[in-house]
Amino acid sequence: MKKTLSIILSLMLVVALLAGCNGGETTEDPTATPTPEPTVEFGDNTDFKVGMVTDAGTIDDKSFNQGTWEGILLAADDFGLDTKYLKPDGTTQAEYLTEIGNLFDAGYKFIVTPGFKFETTIFEAQTKYPDAKFILLDGYPHVGDWAPVVAENTVSIFFAEQEAGFYAGLATALQLEDGEVGFIGGMEIPAVQKFNWGFQQGIAYANDTYGTTIVMNADNFIYEGSFSNVAGGQQLAAGMFDKGVDAIFCAAGGVGVGAINEAKTRAEGGEDVWIVGVDVDQYADGIYDGTNSIILTSAMKGIDQAAYDMILAETYGTFPGGEMLTYDSSNNGVGIPSENPNLSDDVVTKVLKAFDEVVAGTIIVASEQGSLIK
Amino acid sequence: MKKELNEVTKSLIATFLGLLAGALLMLSIGSNPIEGFTYLLKGGTMSIERIGNTLSTATTLILTGLSVAFAFRTGLFNIGVSGQMLIGGLCATIVGLTLDFPRPILLFIMLIVAIIGGAIWGIIPGLLKAKFNVHEVVATIMMNWIALWVVYYTVQAFLIDVQETQSADLPAVAQLKVPWITELFQGSSLNLGLVVALLAVIFIKIILDKTTLGFELKAVGFNRDAALCNGIKVSRNIILSMMIAGGLAGLAGLTFYTGFAENMQIGILPAQGFDGIAVALLGISTPYGVLIAAIFFGILHTGKGFMSAMTDIPPQIANTIIAIIIYFTATSLLIQRLWVKILRKKKSKKNAKGGVD
Question: Which CATH number is A161-300+344-360's, of 3.40.50.2300, 3.20.20.70, 3.40.50.1000, 2.60.40.420?
Answer without folding.
Answer: 3.40.50.2300
